[in-house]
Write a structure and sequence with these properties.
Largest sheet: none
Radius of gyration: 20 Å
Distance between the termini: 46 Å
Helix content: over 70%
Number of helices: 12
Order of helices and strands: HHHHHHHHHHHH
Structural class: mainly alpha
Shape: flat
Number of strands: 0
Amino acid sequence: LGGFLLVKYLQYIFKTKSSLLSILLVLSIYLVLFFITLSTEYTSFFFKESVVVGGMPGAMDTLFHAALSNILASYHVASTGLDGLPHIHYHWLSHLLGGGFSAYFNNNSLLYYNVVYPLIFIPFLLKIIDLSSKRLLWYYNLHHKNSFFLFVAVLVFFLFFPFLSGSYLFIIPSYTFSIIFGLCLFSFLLSQKNIFNRPLLLILISIILVALSFTKVSTGFIFTVFLGYIALRNSKKVSHFLILLGLSSAYLGIIYFYF
């Protein structure tokens, strides 16, 4: 029953045709990422048992994130909880999500990091990559059928990224959450003709970019530069450049003084 529900859930997310081939394709992609996530030194279905026998070298990292999530859920402040509640200058927005899940379902954050995250957010990552690929091709007036190849290219990058950095991006919840968040904003911005003519929207996007940096600073910075380029590409007026320069300075100031 669980396997059947998983297939129907993935089929709903991707809106694939009801054929055995499409179901197997989606399920295979998901299972590859799912088992890669659970085969690392950070997460496992048997996390507690693995920690006891010393089989999780990255357990300290996961325990740190779980502790931060629990503190956010219990005391509503970003802290490790060591010797009181000292504030920690860290990108804690994804931890707030984990803490919220733990509080709502009355579970420990370790369950979120080792079970809920790979089951729920990996499919959403795949879906938003698919949507962003289609939106990008639409933006450049290319055939939407090519989105499948772009989707596969992005997946290949995710799978082979360890050869460059030594670690998979999608095994880290904060990275995955920030990429989902950033690609949603990216897809939305591509559909807007000129945001400089809509001051409230411009301010809202600026606030969202700051929030994105609180999921992962590096991802927030990269998306800020990239989205700024897209905004200037749609409007090359000097006044718009000055507006963007002012917003960028405010963004860098917030990031510098907080982190």
